[in-house]
Write a structure and sequence with these properties.
This protein is mostly helical. The chain is built from 3 helices and no strands.
Length: about 70
């Protein structure tokens, strides 16, 4: 999955944001399982950007609620 910019996040509606969030969280869970098994070698640099993208989406969802 590619990085997501805040500009793109702001263009998405709430339903799309929630779907994207669910996909990203499942991908992060898969990375965490691989890391615990010790098989994450080539994808280890994708965890941090993925966590930040999740934070961007959560920030936007919280902005919409207020």
């Amino acid at each position: 999955m590619t990085r997501i910019r805040m500009k793109t996040v702001r263009e998405l509606n709430e339903k799309d944001l929630k779907e994207r969030l669910e996909q990203m969280r499942s991908e992060l869970a898969k990375f965490r399982v691989d890391a615990s098994k010790g098989t994450l070698r080539k994808d280890s640099g994708k965890v941090r950007p993925l966590r930040r993208d999740i934070a961007r989406i959560l920030t936007r969802l919280n902005e919409k609620r207020q």
